[in-house]
Write a structure and sequence with these properties.
The chain is an all-alpha fold and about 160 residues long. Helix content is about 80%, strand content about 0%.
Length: about 160
Amino acid sequence: MTGREAVARLKKRMDTTLTRAPVSSADIEVQADFAKYFCVLTSGFLENAIIVLILSFAQKRSAPEIQSFIEGKLKYWTNPNVEKVCQLLASFNPDWRIKAGEFLLDERKAAVNSLVALRHQIAHGESVGTSLAQAKAYYKNILVVIDFIADLVDPK
């Protein structure tokens, strides 16, 4: 399975989850709880999508020993804020860091960094004020970021 195929499977699971989101007329507390849940899932989706894309890249271009090394390193790669994403990409190709830095701006940068921060706050039981609409907007931006990274590491 290619990296893009693996990402498509992950995305399908996310989209299916999103179909279970409470309607706008539902209790505001239920919407808020789902928004938190969906933010955590979206952050994990971003992390996993990047990992499968990088592993797919390594499988196509390197020896099994190098693949194993990269897989071992990525096992501990978590909480992908913009800086960590850029650092990871730079470790494979310095031009990727430049391109990613130019792309991960404004709402895309805010979505990536906000999701990591929200994931930590939610996991530690802190109060967060994210709406379901905001969670969906983050997800939409994350899809754009993942497509960009897929095109970077695996051009069509």
